[in-house]
Amino acid sequence: MAAFLRWVGTQAQADKIDLVLFVSAGESLPTRAATALNLSGFPRVGTLQVSRSILLLAATNYRNFDEQMEALTSGFVGLRLHDFLQRLDVPPPAGHVLEDLGFGEKIILTAAQAQPLRRFLLAYRWEILKSAARARRGLFLQLQQLRVAPGTRLAVVDMGFDSKIPSALSTALEGMFDVDLCFYNLFSPVGASPKHEVVPVRAMLGQSTGPEMAANRALVEMLINPAGGELVGYEDRGAGMAAVLFSPPAPNRQQVAHLIDGAEAFCRQAQGRAGGADPVAAFQPFMDFVKNTNDPVRQAIAAVLASDAAPEAPHVRRRVVPLS
């Protein structure tokens, strides 16, 4: 983490960035670690509480709904329709309606159902557009609170696993904030969008590392940018917005909090040390750890992640929490 943040700082200074925002579902380890490192010349930092689904929704409106369909429906295989709609922060129809449409409670979506699913979403578009409006409002209020203004030179920092995030954020910002936007990723995006031509994306690690780390995405994100749940949308709270998450049980959320506290303490101790070290070389031990499936610590963390991801796990609950 310290190596990556030093690399981000170097890029930001070269690009004369005004504000660095770290993408996170909740309290951001990179944001706290960057503050703890206290790097000389590092720009103002903050946390942007968004997710892939939120940015795709924020980029969706009644004019481009049809062309957004492919992006919105990606990742549906293996889910029930009820669960898929929850990930878009869209209330599902009554159970008997889903049964009549062939999407009953026990039906697991497969690739063969892509067209029926798209027909359903087109018929249900107004509920989806309501969620899209909430996503835009939540994004706007966060950026406003972070003092983003026209002309701000803004760098957004992400892991880089999802190539759709830069283009989705760029589209969502159209008509909202006219900023000079770029992305700093840890890994090179796989299958980058053509819109990256107008949204500069730089990565600390080359393309050869991306696929291997992406195969261990849950583990990498747990250690570098852990989240206390899956962020699916926002809920209007009058003058502000709250985050809607699907969260693991409290003991696992406490483990996330301990990880963040520990990394912050390490970065505080690392102030002023190894400042000139090659960030890629400094990051290599982490990648070796991720790839070593025989490491007992790695196995223990993977077991926790597997329990949270179990589809039958009844302990994953919807939570509404204030935006950090």
Folded structure, characterized:
With 324 residues, the protein is α/β, with parallel strands linked by helices. Helix content is 47%, strand content 16%. The protein has two domains: 2-58 and 130-322, no CATH class; 74-126, no CATH class. α2 links the parallel β1 and β2 (44-49). α3 crosses α8 (125-145). The longest helix has 21 residues, at 125-145. The radius of gyration is 20 Å and the shape is globular.
Give a topology summary.
Blueprint: H1 2-15, E1 19-24, H2 29-37, E2 44-49, H3 52-58, H4 65-73, H5 81-87, H6 95-100, H7 114-123, H8 125-145, E3 153-158, H9 164-173, E4 180-187, E5 201-205, H10 210-214, H11 217-224, E6 230-237, E7 240-247, H12 250-269, H13 279-291, H14 296-309, E8 317-322
Parallel strand pairs: 1-2, 1-3, 3-4, 4-5
Antiparallel strand pairs: 6-7, 7-8
Helix pairs in contact: 1-13, 2-12, 3-8, 3-9, 4-7
The biggest sheet amounts to: 5 strands, parallel
Our Rg estimate from Cα atoms comes to: 20 Å
Global outline: globular
**Head-to-tail CA distance between termini:** 21 Å
Number of domains: 2
- What letter string, H or E per element, gives the SSE order? HEHEHHHHHHEHEEHHEEHHHE
What's the total count of β strands? 8
> What average pLDDT do the residues reach?
82
Tell me the structural class. Answer: alpha/beta
Strands ordered across the widest β-sheet: 2-1-3-4-5
In short:
With 324 residues, the chain is of the alpha/beta class. It has helices at residues 2-15, 29-37, 52-58, 65-73, 81-87, 95-100, 114-123, 125-145, 164-173, 210-214, 217-224, 250-269, 279-291, 296-309, and strands at residues 19-24, 44-49, 153-158, 180-187, 201-205, 230-237, 240-247, 317-322. It has 14 helices and eight strands.
